[in-house]
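ok so for the tutorial part 2 we go from a plain amino acid sequence to predicted structure tokens. step 1 is just haveing the sequence, like this:
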Amino acid sequence: MQRKIPLSRAAQLLPFLELLDRIGVRTEPALERAKLPPRLRESPDTLIGTRAMSVFIGDVARREGIPDLVWPACSCGLAQIPFLAPRIRRSPTLLHALETVCALAKRESSNAQIWLEEREDSMLFCHRPSVELGTLGADNLCLLQTRLAISLVRCFAAPDWTPADYAIAMGVEPGPIAREELGGAKLHRAPDYGWVRLPRSILVRPPRTRWLVETSAGTEAGEEPMQDLVGSLEQALRPYLAAGAPSLRDAADLAGTSVRSLQRELARAGSSYRDVLQRAKFDAARELLEQSGGKIVEVAYETGFSDPAHFTHFFRRLAGVTPREYRAALPGG
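step 2 — the prediction. this is what the tokens look like for a chain of 333 residues:
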């Protein structure tokens, strides 16, 4: 079993949700089928399971007959990585922007593998799939990285720039929308990763415009995906708490494994599902108490407690103070 649960920023799904809204597709049933939290739009910096995100994209692409759904969905600049945009916006050259994306990609997807490879007269923007090939939607996630590279270059080069050639992993086929936009670009097949060739002549270019996508808050996301099983499972559980505590079976589904395997791996890490769920609830409650002015009862409901008294007892047992006392002790409380 994997030693962590691959997580991705929920903001990466927003362009897909917006496209589906425009073409009149109801998103709630698709989110439910993929076992994704229903309120992603409200919290774009939330971390969600990468596999569930892939399943959502693949399911919608198949049902709507748009095999390369990622292409029209992510046609606007860097919409798929909005929280990296402030850093990229400060890049003086395309090369610096590419290096920034490679360095910070794991802030957006914990399984992201993006790097640059030198060639004699060019540079390759390389990427590996963030989920196993064969997973529903994995082909679109592969194309997403190709789309990212092209969108980024267009912020510095011409708005209709296309590569002379590119590669995608075996078994992934660009759909008709992608093929039409890429025109005469030569397609190569790579065994386990893809790339986009960038001529050296464009690497020194400054930003073409300042239109790089803004985030709603105008800042970068704070919490990074954890790289261990216990931490990543806690992060994966938190978006689901308001609907009630996820079961052990739910957690195993998020991890893409069986209940027994999950229990065994948590035990090896010196933890248990009960401990992870407890920590997820407490951390979510603490952040809500620190960041919002909502009532204590609202914090209780948001963290999966139907009984506010039970929530107060839970919080005091872990923190030594009640939620109200904790908030009063905060600066400015």
